[in-house]
Structure formats: C-alpha cells, structure tokens
C-alpha cells in the first residue's frame, strides 16, 4: 500500500506519518529527513541542499529524485511507502508514477492534512528537533521529558533553521505555488483523495487517518 501524505509545512505530516508507518508496517519516506540526514553527515548533496532549505525554497528535482530512487530500490520488498513531503513538483509526481508502475504497486490514496497558515506559523515557532536522531517535539503539545533534551538519545534540542517565521512564510508561498497544484494532478488521475482537518489533537487526527485507510 502506497500513500502520499500531503500538506503544507508544519501540517503534521512527519508526526502522523511516523505513527501510520508503525501501525501499518510501511516505510515512511520523508525527503526532508533524507536531506537533513545528508546534511548531518556533511555529504556534498547535503551541503548543496542546505542553501535552498535555509531560504525556504525547493531543492532541485534532480537531487530529490536521486535520493528517492535509492530508498525505494532498497526498501521495495517492504509492504509499501508513506511519502511525506514528496512529491512537491509535477516532475517529482511524474517520476513517482513511473517508479511505482515499474514496481507494479499503485498509489492507494492521497491524504491531505489541512491546517491554516496562522496555526502553522505558531506551531513551527514552538517546534524543537533533535539534531542527532531527528525526533520532533513541540513546546506546547509534545514537550520533551527534560527541558531542551531529546528523550530518545539525550542530545540537546535545537530549532530548525528554516522554522524562523519569515522562512516559514516563504515555505508556505512555495507550497501554494509549486506543490498544492499537484492535488489537481492526482484528482484528474482518479487517485482517491481524503482531506483531513489537521488542527485537532494528534490522537484525533491519527484516529481519523486510520479510519480512512482501513475503509
Ligand atoms: P520538510 O522537512 O519536508 O518540511 P515540510 O514539508 O515543510 O514539513 P515540516 O517537516 O516542517 O512539517 P510536518 O508537516 O512534517 O509537521 P510536523 O509533524 O513536524 O522539508 C524541509 C525543506 O527541505 C523544504 O523546505 C525544501 O527546501 C526541502 N525539501 C524537502 N523535500 C523536498 C522535495 N520533495 N522537493 C524539493 N525540496 C524538498 O509537525 C510540526 C510541529 O507541530 C511539531 O512541533 C509537532 O510536534 C507539532 N504538531 C504536529 N501535529 C500537531 C497537532 N495535531 N496539534 C498540535 N501540534 C502538532
């Protein structure tokens, strides 16, 4: 089963995607996480991506498609993928279609997490992330047990460099201009689509997602 988890920056894709991947034994493929991992390791690809990410712009398709192909080839034997933050452009969507065709595993659905811009800016100003293991927290809704320290690997938490309010606003503009139009692409292709209100507590959103997937 392959699912695209779609939504603006900060809509909760990572939070929900991780829970769904565990529940349905799927591989969560987050291009944002792959890029941050490449950056942590100091690879040329990570360093090239950093200037786009810090500016709130999209990383070039050529970089993204190489990363995605690698992961999909390595994980193809698993039960399917939850795509989080991918695809973000028409070229990425077409490439994903071609790869899934080759694998003989179609897209089951697109799920859109719908959250308004003000909630997103507020949420992301309160997000903390672990620079070592990538765990995500929120100072309002999901605090670490010890202030400023990752529960998983006891590393000091940081704010993501692209979570500053002006960069978040740019990311929202980029989402609207380059990524949101993909919904029309999937609609015209007849892929089932579910729009879920993402501005409810995490458990409620998750229960709704599970219900839609199981039905
Ligand atoms: P990426 O990492 O994909 O960022 P994003 O899509 O902007 O999404 P976020 O990770 O910011 O948010 P999220 O929706 O996962 O929310 P989360 O669950 O963390 O991309 C970063 C950059 O990389 C891009 O700008 C681009 O430069 C580049 N990039 C990545 N993929 C690319 C691609 N395919 N093509 C080109 N460039 C690409 O939640 C946010 C916060 O809210 C957390 O603190 C969380 O605890 C909290 N929260 C979650 N759910 C709730 C809830 N229901 N109620 C209250 N708080 C909640």
Can you tell me about this structure?
- With 215 residues, this protein is of the alpha/beta class.
- The protein has a single domain, classed as P-loop containing nucleotide triphosphate hydrolases (Rossmann fold), CATH 3.40.50.
- It contains 9 helices and 7 strands; from the N terminus they run E-H-E-H-H-H-E-H-E-H-E-E-H-H-E-H.
- The chain has helices at 13-24, 31-40, 44-55, 61-74, 90-103, 117-125, 165-179, 182-188, 202-214; strands at 2-7, 27-30, 81-84, 107-114, 127-129, 136-138, 193-197.
- The strands form 2 sheets. It has a 5-stranded parallel β-sheet, sandwiched between helices. A two-stranded antiparallel sheet has the order 5-6.
- Strand 5 and strand 6 form a beta hairpin.
- The protein is globular and about 45 Å long.
- The mean pLDDT is 94.
- The structure holds BIS(adenosine)-5'-pentaphosphate.
- Residues 7, 9-15, 31-32, 35, 52-53, 56-59, 64, 85-86, 88, 92, 123, 127, 136, 138, 141-142, 162, 171, 198, 201-202, 205 line the site of BIS(adenosine)-5'-pentaphosphate.
């Amino acid at each position: 089963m392959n699912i695209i988890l779609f939504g603006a920056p900060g809509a909760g894709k990572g939070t929900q995607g991780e829970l769904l991947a565990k529940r349905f034994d799927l591989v969560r493929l987050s291009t944002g996480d792959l890029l941050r991992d490449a950056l942590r390791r100091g690879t040329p690809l990570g360093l090239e991506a950093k200037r786009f990410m810090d500016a709130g712009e999209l990383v070039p398709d050529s970089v993204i498609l190489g990363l995605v192909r690698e992961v999909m080839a390595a994980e193809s034997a698993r039960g399917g993928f939850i795509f989080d933050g991918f695809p973000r452009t028409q070229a990425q969507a077409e490439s994903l279609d071609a790869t899934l065709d080759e694998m003989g595993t179609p897209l089951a659905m697109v799920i859109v997490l719908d959250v308004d811009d003000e909630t997103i800016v507020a949420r992301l100003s309160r997000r903390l992330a672990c620079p070592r293991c990538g765990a995500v927290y929120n100072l309002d809704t999901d605090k670490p047990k010890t202030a400023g320290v990752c529960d998983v690997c006891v590393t000091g938490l940081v704010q993501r460099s692209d979570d500053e309010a002006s960069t978040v606003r740019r990311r929202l503009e980029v989402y609207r201009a380059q990524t949101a139009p993909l919904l029309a692409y999937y609609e015209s292709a007849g892929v089932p689509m579910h729009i879920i209100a993402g501005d409810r507590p995490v458990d409620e959103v998750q229960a709704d997602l599970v219900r839609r997937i199981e039905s």
